[in-house]
Specification:
By secondary structure, the protein is of the alpha+beta class. It has five domains: about 25-245, no CATH class; about 250-450, no CATH class; about 460-545, no CATH class; about 555-635, SH3 type barrels (Roll), CATH 2.30.30; about 640-725, Alpha-Beta Plaits (2-Layer Sandwich). Helix content is about 70%, strand content about 10%.
């Protein structure tokens, strides 16, 4: 019994430690090298056909400048050339557009080779790994290096996916080249054939130059990626050295605490003036509210605009007060964390205290992450509100003073984002970093074997002296003692209670630390319950030497029950464990299966629950996830591409429509900047020229029942408003019917 108990404690503790390390460790060097190898291979495969397609294309600076001059001259002479060629107005406009796109492609390449307007994600940090190796690096230096490693890790991750996108762009350009070269126009009209041939030549030249631009951008990104990968590996090497020679003295602790106390004192000194500003803003808001007319706050009147401005100002000062309180709390928490780290570093804590600190730090990291996500969601809501206010300011017929009030309200909200939410984006990650360092340090010092041995180090022999009194002896040579009889009866009678209590203890004390977000803990708890109950029952029987063969017939009946009556139950149960340990998705992932899309909110032993975008819970048996295709939108990251389709009339300005659509998606706050959104002229329909607007959104900002389609709705509203403003027509379906005479 003693050995079994100690072994169970040791195994569970080791599993907890291993799982926590896997869950929270930084990007390992092996993964960085694997990413670098994959990028190198993918670029090499994409470059080979690109070099073949671009062979013979003159790409020196002088050649590019000369070709731009030739194309510009051709564009200037286009009116006379169109007359000489006999082009219609529509043909001339199409040729002019194709020529303009070629000039843009050459200009883009010319800018790249001169180092102008290069859009490179990330940058090469100061190479702190080349600084001299200090003999006694302190804990502050180590924390700064960990922070730098975390930042560079994120840059490497972003660059990895950006380069993958750039590789796809290059392949798409190569496909455009092939399509242009294979295009053959036939027409009975010689003039039409000549026109189509000229346009095709321009499109082929544009495709080649776009491929050249993409190839050059890819090479630039690869150089930056290589440099950051190399830097990352050197930083980790330097961190390993620091960890072996780290110093954490009382002087360092005192200095860090004084720094936090000075920050708290400075923040407290700001409270009075900020409180006065908040009171004045609230008084102004009350007056503005009382001046509202019967139309309310949504009307486009001066009173409603004034109310919107005063509401934004009151909100700004309220957030300032909350920020001060939170920063003070973070600094006080930092003081406690520094003291705990000092005690931990200098071996002043026992195993139980280390265990407690480790778990509290893990829980606090989760809370801080949730808090940060909440502020990011509020920031997104503020940006949408700013956009709505500016739309109101652009409403035709408003007087200048009302328009200015709306603009000032938008500026105050923008100030809230820049001064409040951006500040939270700095202080919360710093607090998370401090908790993460405490977690790592406690985890590295946690000696699970020693703790397990201390738990079992009771005076076993003394206790068993009484229990070894013999009561009777069986004919088969075994004897029954007081201890055996009492223990067997107690174990058997209390097996259900002990098993339930033990499984709950495992849930709350051990399994929860393996993965706090894994709601399949319920399934594991049930397994632990049955294992404990069967073990206790068998132990009770073994104590009094009751042969297990007496229960053989029950085993056969149990097997038959599984084979016939419980097949589906065990199928789903086993599928649930496969999902738990293979982890094709986890809690809060957004997935799509059998046409059902939503967020995973529970992975149970028998079924998995998905909350759809219409706020309904769909419960699917676990076997469905192994037998059907599952799309996990958030396995690698939370980015998802969406699109909006719109058509314009054939009489509208196509170029202007593209510019308006591009402006809309690039200024929409909910749309990611990288990958960049783009507009595609999709096709020529029966009644309209059709465009598709492609953009990426962060699904992490949209949790059921909040629909990500709200982004598409905002885009459509802006398209409708700006198209009307620019005179671009969205046509009705049209059908021309011709009757023979």
């Amino acid at each position: 019994m003693k050995k079994i108990f100690l072994s169970a404690i040791l195994i569970l503790a080791l599993l907890t430690k291993l799982a926590a390390a896997v869950e929270t460790r930084d990007m390992p060097s092996e993964r960085i090298e694997l990413m670098h190898s994959q990028i190198t291979s993918d670029i090499s495969q994409a470059m080979k056909p690109a070099d073949e397609q671009l062979t013979g294309l003159r790409l020196t600076s002088s050649d590019i400048s000369q070709r731009i001059s030739e194309l510009t001259a051709l564009e200037a002479a286009l009116p006379s050339n169109m007359a000489a060629w006999g082009y219609s107005h529509e043909q001339g406009e199409r040729y002019r557009h194709a020529l303009s796109e070629v000039i843009i492609a050459y200009s883009s390449y010319n800018s790249l080779i001169h180092g102008v307007n290069q859009e490179v994600i990330g940058y090469i940090s100061e190479d702190v790994s080349l600084l001299p190796m200090l003999k006694s690096p302190d804990v502050n230096m180590s924390d700064a290096l960990v922070k730098e490693i975390t930042r560079v890790s994120r840059i490497v991750d972003i660059q990895f996916f950006y380069i993958q996108g750039e590789i796809n762009t290059l392949r798409s350009c190569l496909s455009d080249i092939s399509a242009a070269e294979e295009q053959r126009y036939t027409s009975q009209d010689d003039n039409e054939s000549a026109f189509l041939h000229r346009v095709n030549m321009l499109e082929a030249e544009k495709a080649r130059m776009n491929a050249a631009v993409s190839r050059l951008q890819l090479m630039n990104q690869k150089r930056v990626f290589d440099a950051n990968v190399s830097l990352m590996l050197r930083l980790r090497k330097r961190l390993d050295y620091m960890q072996k020679n780290l110093v954490f003295s009382q002087e360092i602790l005192t200095r860090n605490i004084e720094h936090q106390e000075q920050g708290i004192k400075s923040l407290l000194g700001q409270m009075d003036s900020i409180g006065d500003s908040l009171n004045r803003a609230n008084e102004s808001l009350i007056l503005a509210k009382s001046a509202l007319g019967p139309e309310g706050a949504d009307a486009l009147t001066k009173a409603s605009a004034e109310y919107m401005l005063r509401s934004a100002e009151a909100s700004y000062w309220q957030y300032r007060v909350s920020l001060i309180h939170d920063e003070i709390a973070f600094r006080r928490e930092a003081i406690t964390t520094w003291r705990n780290r000092y005690s931990l570093f200098n071996d002043e804590l026992n195993g139980v205290k280390i265990w407690t600190l480790r778990n509290e730090a893990g829980s606090r990291m989760e809370e801080l992450q949730q808090q940060l996500n909440g502020f990011r969601a509020m920031e997104s809501a503020f940006l949408r509100n700013i956009d709505d206010i500016l739309l109101k300011a652009d409403t035709a017929g408003l007087s200048d003073d009302v328009r200015q009030l709306f603009i000032r309200a938008a500026e105050v909200n923008r100030l809230t984002v820049s001064e409040i939410f951006n500040r939270y984006e700095a202080v919360i990650p710093n607090a998370m970093l401090l908790q993460r360092r405490l977690y790592y340090e406690a985890d590295s010092r946690l000696d699970t074997l020693r703790i397990a041995e201390e738990v079992g180090s009771l005076s076993y022999e003394t206790v068993m002296a009484f229990f070894n009194i013999q009561l009777w002896q069986g004919s088969a040579g075994y004897n029954v003692t007081v201890g055996k009889l009492i223990i067997s009866i107690l174990v058997f009678l209390s097996s259900f209670f002990v098993s339930s209590l033990g499984s709950k203890w495992v849930r709350s004390r051990i399994i929860k630390r393996v993965n706090r977000k894994m709601t399949a803990i319920d399934a594991i708890q049930r397994i632990v319950f049955y294992v404990l109950w069967v073990s206790l029952a068998l132990t009770a029987l073994n104590i009094v030497k009751i042969p297990l063969t007496a229960f053989a017939f029950m085993g056969g009946a149990f097997v038959l029950g599984i084979g016939f009556g419980m097949q589906d139950i065990f199928n789903n149960l086993i599928s649930g464990f496969i999902l738990i340990f293979s982890r094709p998705f986890k809690i809060h992932d957004i997935i799509d299966i059998l046409g059902t899309q939503g967020m995973v909110i529970d992975i149970g032993s028998r079924a998995t629950t998905i909350k759809t975008w219409d706020d309904s819970d769909v419960i699917l048996p676990n076997k469905y996830f192994l037998e059907n295709e599952v799309t996990n939108w958030t396995r690698v990251d939370f980015r998802k591409r969406e699109s909006v389709d719109v058509g314009i009339s054939y009489t509208s300005n196509v170029k202007k429509a593209e510019e308006v659509l591009t402006y809309i998606v690039k200024t929409q706050p909910d749309i990611l900047k990288k990958p960049a959104p783009f507009v595609e002229l999709k096709n020529f329909g029966d009644s309209s020229i059709n465009f598709s607007v492609y953009y990426w959104i962060d699904l992490n900002l949209y949790r059921p029942p909040h629909e990500p389609l709200a982004v598409a709705n905002n885009i459509k509203r802006r398209i409708y408003a700006l198209f009307r403003l620019e005179g671009i027509e969205i046509p009705y379906p049209q059908v021309d019917v011709h009757f023979d005479k």
